[in-house]
Write a structure and sequence with these properties.
The N terminus and C terminus are likely disordered. The relative contact order is 0.12. Helix 6 runs antiparallel to helix 7 and helix 7 packs across helix 8. It is elongated and about 65 Å long. The protein is an alpha+beta fold and 276 residues long. Helices cover 36% and strands 8% of the residues. The chain has 8 helices and 6 strands. Strands 1, 2, 3, 4, 5 and 6 form a 6-stranded mixed beta sheet that branches.
Length: 276
Amino acid sequence: MPEPTEHAGAAAQGGAEVIAIREGANGWGVVTITSPDGAFQEEPCPRCPWRRDAPIGAFPPEVFRLSAPTTYDWAEKLFGCHGSKRDAPKTCAGFLLRGAAHNATVRLNGPDITDVSSSHPLYDTYKEMAIANGVAADDPVLAPCRDSRPPNDTSLGRADIDADQRAATVTHTERLIRAFLVESAGLDAGDAMTADAALLAGRLGAAGHLGIPQHPKFPAGTSALEIIRQFVVECVGDDLGADTDEVAEQLRRYLASAAVLGGVHEPIPLTPSTHA
C-alpha cells in the first residue's frame, strides 16, 4: 500500500499546533497535534474505538494503520481522543488503558494511569482493535504493536517490573546520548556511536545518576559530569582541557534538559506531548 500523503503543519488555537495531516481513506485521515498541557481523557468517550461496544467501521481501516505506531516500542506520539478538538487535544483514555504500556512519552512523563478508568469493556490490544475494524491480521504495520501490560498485572513481580523500568531508562538515555554525538560530530558513525552511547548510559546508570540504584562496584560519589568528561576523553583519545570540559558540560546539560539525570535541578525546556 502506498505511503499516505503528509501535509505540512499549521497553527492551531489554545497553544496547540497541527504538525501534520496524513490522508487516510473515505475523507478520513490522521492529524498530528502538539498538546502543550498534556491533557487526557479519564474515561473513553462514546465513540472511542477502543470500546468493544463502539460501532465497527466508524473509522476506515487506513486510519488504524496510520495510528498503529503509537503502540510500538518507545513510540513518542500518543493516540489522541476522537472526541477532543484540534485546539484542545487530549490523549485517549482507551489508549492509556490498553495501548500505552510501551509508549516512551507515557512511561517517562505520565499521566498517572490510576486516574483513568473505563466502565465499558475494551479491546485488549491495539492489534485486536485494528483487526476488528478491518485491518488485515497479517498487515506488516501491526507486527511491531506491543501488547499492553495492565497496571495491576500480578504475573510479574515487583523486581521484574523495576528491572524493566531500569532497562527502559538506560535505553532512553542511550538514544539521547547517541543523538547528541551525531549532532556534535556532524556525521553518523553507525554502530560505533551506538556502542559509545550504550557505554556512557551504562556508566551513568551504574553510578546512580539515572534515578536507579547505584551498582555496588561503581566508585561512590562520582559526579555525572566526571563520568561524562572521562567518556569524552576516551572518545577523543586525548584530554583537551577546557575544550573537553565544555563538551562534557554541554552533554550534561543536554541530558539534564531531557530530565534523565537524577538530582539535577535547573531550568529545562518543556517539550509538549505529540498526538497522532
